[in-house]
Structures are given as structure tokens and as C-alpha cells.
Amino acid sequence: MLGPVILAASRSDRMRRLVSAAPVTKPVVDRFIPGENVGQVLPVIEELAGRGLELTMDVVGEDITSPAQAEAARDAYLELIDRLKPLGLGARAEMSVKLSMFGQALDGGHELALRNVRPVVEAAAEIGTTVTLDAEDHTTLDSMFAIHEELRRDVPQTGCVIQAYLFRTEADARRLAASGSRVRLVKGAYKEPAEVAYQQKHEIDKAYVRILRTLMEGEGYPMIGSHDPRLISIGQEMARLAGRKLDEYEFQMLYGIRGDEQRRLADEGHRVRVYTAYGTDWYGYFMRRLAEKPANLRFFVRSMVTK
Ligand code: FDA
């Protein structure tokens, strides 16, 4: 019950101001978002890479209101790519982007987002890495998939995310698997209506398994974005049955969640990529992490009460 309430709060400006200003918020936020700028996050990248993990970097921020902010988002990613270059990690450190942050929700947003994200995709390719387009709420997805297709014309390794909770996703998965794309499959983190999305956990999990099979049996590169132990072992088994080698798929998890499992899989020889978000505009990202696990909220509230 708590999850949808927290997701609704994630869209509220009043809650944003309250939560962001509370001094006790910071230590809880730090668990999921290990820095506010590139300088703070570079040592984290080096540390994770040193432990045999790969990364996908997210500069947080999604509710922008002007083209200038969209350009600032583009520049933040370009700066990150510039700072990654000397580390020589290549595809071991890729980028995840939310098109809303590149202007997708503004007037003329589709073209604006494409114009802002293209230089990031090209700069990433120049240092031997790539970009994955995150999936946001269902109203944004036609535009996201069209931008993905457009970007793949020049940079075919550009990836995208699909969400198991949406009814449309099985068809999207078939199309993407046949096109040979890199695709991250996740359960889905937004509050979606019953007209477009499964609401029950068991339905979402079953859809996840069906979609994962399509990806594993297809031509592309599946990225299993989940912390769910059952889905992780099903993913391993499906990859084996599909005859995929260890470098023909990967697991992805969020920074700060199930670190032991990330290491265990990497020690077994799996490719494991840690989605690492940083930046100052962390509210939306943080609230989705609280909504996924009510125990996080209890920890957060307890720390507010006991300070
Ligand atoms: P589930 O929520 O069932 O969790 C399984 C177990 O994992 C829990 O029992 C708990 O132990 C642990 N866990 C999960 N979430 C936790 C949390 N927040 N705090 C502490 N423990 C937690 N969504 C989206 O809509 N668009 C996107 O682009 C992305 N991108 C993305 C990238 C990557 C790499 C990941 C891993 C996830 C996303 N997501 C996402 C989020 C995704 O949709 C989903 O909300 C979360 O991954 C939680 O679902 P699980 O599959 O982990 O299962």
C-alpha cells in the first residue's frame, strides 16, 4: 500500500521541498546516491571497477522546466564522459539517461531531447562506451523508442529500457530483440494505471519471465535489471538454455542495493553492471527507491524521529 503513496509524493513539489531540506535526509540519500558531482563520484567508479564490476552512470534530474536546463543536462553528461576518458574503462562505464532531463516534456520536446542527447551518444562512442535510454512513465515511451531507433542508425550499440509491468512491453521486446538491440529489462518503477499496466507483483513477475525469454532467444544483448533472487536465477538458466556465453548478457543492479549479490555474481564470472546515480536533483530517484522497499522508508522516518 505504501509504494503508490510514495510514488504520488515523488511528483509533489511540496514534498520535494520538505524532504530535500530535512537535514536527516542526506545520510539516507547517500546510500543510493554516492555523490553530488563528478569529482565526488569518480573514486566510487574506480572502486567498483577495481572490484570487477561495471557501471552505468546516471546524472539525476528529471523535472526540468526550460531548454537551458536540458542543455545543462547534456553538458553534465559531456563533462562526465570527458572525466571518464583518462580512466580508460571503455564500455565498462556506460551512461544511462532520462530523456525528460534532455527536454522531452517541453514544447517541441521530442526534437529537443533528440538534439540534446545525440552529442552525448556520440561522445560516449568516441571513448568506446555507450548510452542506455531509461524508460520513464508510459506516456513518454513512443517518443523514447523513436529516439532510440534514430540514434541506433549511427550508433547501433545505443540501448534502451523496457518495463515488464506494461502490457505493451511484450510487443516492444519482440521488435527490439529482432533488431539486435541492447535492452535492459526492469519491472518498472512508476505509478501506472490499470489500463496500461499489471498491478499485482505476481503478474509483473510472470510478464518479466516471458519477456526475458524473448530477449534471450533473440538477436540482441539482454541486460537483466533486477535485484529479485528468483528472476536472477531464472535469467541464468534461460541464458544457459539459449546457449549464450557469459559475455552475451549481463546483470544490472542499483548502487546501494544487494551489494553482496552483485559481488557473488561477478565472482562467478558474470558481467554485473551497477547503476550509479549522482547529482543534486536526487528527489525523484530517491523517492522511487523508497517506494520499492517500504523498509527503506521506515529507516528514513526513524532517522528523522531519533535525530
Ligand atoms: P523487487 O522490487 O521485487 O525487489 C527484489 C528484492 O530486491 C527486494 O526484496 C529487496 O531485497 C531488493 N530491493 C529492491 N529494491 C530495493 C530498494 N529500493 N531498496 C532496498 N532493497 C531493494 N525502472 C524504470 O521504470 N525505468 C528504468 O529505466 C529503470 N532502470 C533501472 C536500472 C537498473 C539497473 C535497475 C536494477 C532497476 C531499474 N529500474 C528502472 C527500477 C525497476 O523498475 C524496479 O523498480 C527495481 O529494480 C525494483 O525491482 P526488482 O526487480 O529489483 O524487484
From TrEMBL:
GO BP term, example: L-proline catabolic process to L-glutamate
EC numbers: 1.5.5.2
Pathway in which the depicted protein is active: Amino-acid degradation; L-proline degradation into L-glutamate; L-glutamate from L-proline: step 1/2
UniProtKB keywords: FAD, Flavoprotein, Nucleotide-binding, Oxidoreductase, Proline metabolism
Binding residues for FAD: Q163, K187, G188, A189, K201, S226, H227
Record-listed substrate binding positions: K98, R288, R289
InterPro entries found in the cross-reference section: FAD-linked_oxidoreductase-like (IPR029041), PRODH_bac_arc (IPR008219), Proline_DH_dom (IPR002872), Proline_oxidase (IPR015659)
Record's signal peptide: none
Reactions accelerated catalytically: L-proline + a quinone = (S)-1-pyrroline-5-carboxylate + a quinol + H(+)
Essential cofactor(s): FAD
Cofactor info, note text: Binds 1 FAD per subunit.
Highest taxon listed in the record's lineage: Bacteria
Domain Proline dehydrogenase: 44-299
GO MF annotation terms: nucleotide binding; proline dehydrogenase activity
Entry protein name: proline dehydrogenase
